[in-house]
Amino acid sequence: MRRWATSYAMLAPALLLFGVFVLYPLVGAVRISLTDSTGIGRARFVGLANYTAMASDPTFWRAAGNTVLLAAVSVPVSLVLGLGVALLLRDRIPGGGLFRAVFLAPYVISGVVVAMAGRWVFDQNVGIVDRVLAAVGAPQPDWQSDGTAAAVSVVLVLLWARTGLAVVLYLSALQGVDGDVLEAAELDGASPWQRLRDVVWPLLRPTTFFLTVMLVIETFQVFDIVWVMTKGGPAGATELLVTYAYNQGFAARREGYGSAIGVVVFVVVLAATALWWRAQRASEDEL
Amino acid sequence: MANPHLPTRRRLLTAGAAAAATGALSACGGFSTGGPDDSQSSDDGSLTMITWASDTEAPAFQALADAFREQTGTRVELQVVPYSEVLTAVDTGLRTDSPPDLFRVSYTDVAAYRAQGVLADLPDAADLEPAFLPAFWSAVTDDDGTFGVPHHTDTSMVVLNTAAVASAGLGPLPATVADAWTWEEFADALGRIRPSRADSYAFAANWQNAGAYRWLNFVDQAGGRLLSQDLTSVATDDPGALAAVTFTRDLFRRQLTPQNASARGQAASDLFLNQTVATAFAGDFLLAELDGGGFEYTATFLPRDVNASADLGGNALVAVEASARKEQALEFISFCAQAEQMGAFCAAATVLPTRRDVDPASLRYAVRPDLMPLYVEQATAIREPLVQQVVVPSFSAVNAQLRDRLDEVFLGDDDDATALRRLTDGVASVLTTP
């Protein structure tokens, strides 16, 4: 009994913070999503009307599709890039510190600053990329007015911003890989690729799982980069669920509807995380 | 075998779930900036006013506050926040029962507050009304009363890079609203402008983002409507709206305007300042910024079709009904609405008066005094039918739909009738759903 009391006493600060800053606002968001709140004055209870309106809102579905597509593209690429760079930086190489800084800097500085840099780099009128492409006679994409090009520019900047986290975590995990195991595999005749695939990669599974979950969650929360670079345009090509929720909640003064979108994002991310966890557990049980 | 020094799966899942919850809340549950203390009345009897302000407007507002204090002894504490956050700051105060005593609000947002009973009715409205231009007065008035004063206005004109258009042989620019280019003449003039650089274009309209409603200038110029006469639904298949769709899409089709000057694109003033475009629509409040561009420019009137028309820019000052100092707050906004104070503010902030008895010609504008009389004349083209449509309570949602749908229309391949339907269906959806 006394041990339980001590445990809960130690947990209390975290539980308090979780309750105040997570649980209470979450319940508030759900409550608002059931109203026609405009953000001012009294709101009427409208039941699930915001959720049913969502079902027939083409922009919502487009934003949902864009968000899933962004996650499907950016998460695996971030993992591969992160692992690749971490493997390169694992050994002491000249300028290794500089490379680490280059990859980590976008992760630790403001997303708005990263996005502003991305906007200037990919500006279709005065941007560096198009000027370089023009100088070498290559076609210059319309980064702000062609949907595909805009999406590509967002993904590229997102990868730049995200890879640093994967690099740091993989570097840390690689340091935990037992050198004796690798040496034994080498003595058994395993090639470098086989050692990576059959020894290192399984040992990195917890890190990969953590990164996957975090990157998926972060992708569902991407706001600053898209907002600064494209504002969801052109023609909705880069509209994501979070930018749409913001637009509806603030610009359109449909706070109830914006909250409903936010709740959907929360449920989807939670469900995706749970499913991924179950899949991961099942695969571990098979081993 | 898992590395014991790495996080376990369960710990990772817990961390992930917590992060998901926090993230989702940041997307949907925050909905506020600035704490309640930011918007509370001061205990010393002073008034709190939330506003945004440019470098020229901030001292002009402070001068009003100082003059009011000198006259009445009541201090007005200005809380200047970024434009993008001003309504959130006001809403937070209202939500937490600590509202500001008064705030500055655009005409297109007044009705949303009016409809929720947030604003205080102006007691001396009957005395003030005759002094004001009807279009602006109607923006703050409904059947139940007058909820604020139209403090100033601004509107758009065509600004032209002098060097870029010199070789186009355009001749003397139209000097009055009556002589303004017709749509055909305007398009012809744009077609004659030869880009001075490989990547420059003739024109950009200022319909980006929150300015999407300025596209309605074209609809009104063509004698059309977006909303029905009773303002409760969209005007379907309106010939004027269809003409506006065709004309504005042609600007993109003919590559007179860059694709990224679409409704979610880059601000027209930015494109003009970095000389990507030779001409642009720009409000008078931007003149100080344009003056910093380092090149010469001039201005002429917006093109006209069936009507000459212009956008309703500018802002009202409103008092909050729930304020503990409502009477003093109303007294302050009435003070700001007097001819002398309005004239001084407009001259300093490069905006236009809304009173009939403030002669803009007598004002000593700090920036481009040569162009301001033109803006004054352009403002006379602001038409009441257009004003009525942009001050409905749901206009924020309408404007957001206009931005998103116009972006699709400008950059899409639909035929014009389908494009108009896409636009009107989008607007209809927010007039009928929560």
TrEMBL record, chain A:
Entry-linked InterPro entries: ABC_transporter_permease, MetI-like, MetI-like_sf
Keywords annotated in UniProt: Cell membrane, Membrane, Sugar transport, Transmembrane, Transmembrane helix, Transport
Places the protein is found: Cell membrane
ABC transmembrane type-1 domain segment(s): 64-276
Highest rank taxon of the organism: Bacteria
Pfam families documented for this protein: BPD_transp_1
Residue stretches spanning the membrane: 68-89, 101-122, 149-171, 257-277
CDD domains: TM_PBP2 (cd06261)
Bilayer topology annotation: Multi-pass membrane protein
SUPFAM superfamilies named in the record: MetI-like
Example of a GO biological process term: transmembrane transport
Gene Ontology terms: cellular component: plasma membrane
Family membership: Belongs to the binding-protein-dependent transport system permease family.
PANTHER family named in the record: ABC TRANSPORTER PERMEASE PROTEIN, INNER MEMBRANE ABC TRANSPORTER PERMEASE PROTEIN YCJO
Name assigned to this protein: ABC-type sugar transport system permease subunit
TrEMBL record, chain B:
Signal peptide: 1-26
PROSITE patterns noted in UniProt: TAT (PS51318)
Keyword terms, alphabetized: Signal, Sugar transport, Transport
One Gene Ontology molecular-function label: maltose binding
Pfam annotation, one family: SBP_bac_1
Biological process annotations from GO: maltodextrin transmembrane transport; maltose transport
Keyword Signal: yes
Database matches in InterPro entries: SBP, TAT_signal
Matching Gene3D superfamilies: Periplasmic binding protein-like II (3.40.190.10)
A cellular component term, taken from the record's GO annotations: ATP-binding cassette (ABC) transporter complex, substrate-binding subunit-containing
Family: Belongs to the bacterial solute-binding protein 1 family.
Name of the protein described by the UniProt record: Multiple sugar transport system substrate-binding protein
Organism: Kineococcus aurantiacus
